[in-house]
Every structure is written in C-alpha cells, then in structure tokens.
C-alpha cells in the first residue's frame, strides 16, 4: 500500500547550486561539506544509486532517508534504510522523510526531496491507487503526480 504524500522536490534548488558552482560564485568547499554523521548514515543506511556525483563524477550518489515526527520519539532524526520505511509507514500514522544525496568521494550533499509517510495516507480522499511500493523504491524522480496533494 502506498502512503507517500506531500512530496516536495528540491531538484530546482540543486540545479541552482550547481549553476552557482559552475559560475564560480560558490566553491566546492561550500557544497562538499558532508558531515561525518551524514557519511556514516550513507555507509550504513544509504541506498546506492547508479547516478554519478555531479561534482567529482567519479563516485555514484548514495541516498540517505532521515525520518522525523512525534510518533518516532527517540528515533526522530535518525537515518533508515529504504526497506525499513514501508514497515514504519504501516505502524505509524504520519512521519516526515527527508532524502539527502551524498557522495562518499567528494562529500557533495544536497536535499533531494521530502515527503510524508504513514497510515493516515490510506484514509485520504481516494488517492490510494493500490500501488505496491510505499516509499517509492529508488524513486527519486519517479511519478511526480503524488505531488498534487
Ligand atoms: Zn563526488
């Protein structure tokens, strides 16, 4: 069951940052500043992609999914693997997911998108289409129509 909703896409902001970088208005040290925490999260909970880092072009990007919400209690702010999200979505009524892309080569990192997951999405206004993948597996850039809500 799919509960993803209120998707906010940050690809425009990312393109803007990359443009600034190309134009020399910001330096790579400004944008390649992944913290040790973020890099650990990428190593242990990250979702590998086949997309090349836009900065160093030698490593593939890793997606890290951070979860926030009152129901998560002490787990709020932690990273979770993509596989764990559907389970949480069936357990909790609502929580926020922030997806960050990270390059473990050059420390580039940027927010990719955010969205809500959780059972509250199941009782909505008929937008539950019976799709199977809750978290949009590998799903950055896919099926933008969720953003309509
Ligand atoms: Zn890189």
Automatic annotation (TrEMBL):
<feature type="region of interest" description="Disordered">
    <location>
        <begin position="127"/>
        <end position="149"/>
    </location>
</feature>
<dbReference type="InterPro" id="IPR035169">
    <property type="entry name" value="DUF5318"/>
</dbReference>
<protein>
    <submittedName>
        <fullName>DUF5318 domain-containing protein</fullName>
    </submittedName>
</protein>
<dbReference type="Pfam" id="PF17249">
    <property type="entry name" value="DUF5318"/>
</dbReference>
């Amino acid at each position: 069951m799919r509960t993803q909703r209120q998707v906010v896409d940050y690809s425009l902001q990312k393109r803007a940052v990359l443009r600034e970088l190309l134009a020399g208005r910001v330096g790579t040290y400004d944008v390649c500043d992944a913290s040790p925490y973020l890099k650990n999260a990428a190593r242990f909970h990250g979702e590998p992609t086949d997309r090349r880092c836009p900065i160093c072009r030698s490593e593939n990007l890793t997606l890290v999914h951070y979860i926030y919400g009152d129901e998560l209690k002490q787990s709020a702010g932690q990273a979770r693997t993509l596989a764990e999200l559907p389970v949480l979505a069936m357990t909790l009524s609502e929580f926020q997911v922030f997806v960050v892309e990270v390059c473990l080569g050059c420390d580039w990192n940027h927010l990719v998108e955010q969205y809500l997951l959780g059972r509250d999405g199941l009782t909505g206004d008929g937008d539950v289409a019976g799709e199977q993948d809750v978290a949009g597996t590998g799903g950055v850039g896919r099926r933008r129509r969720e953003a309509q809500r």
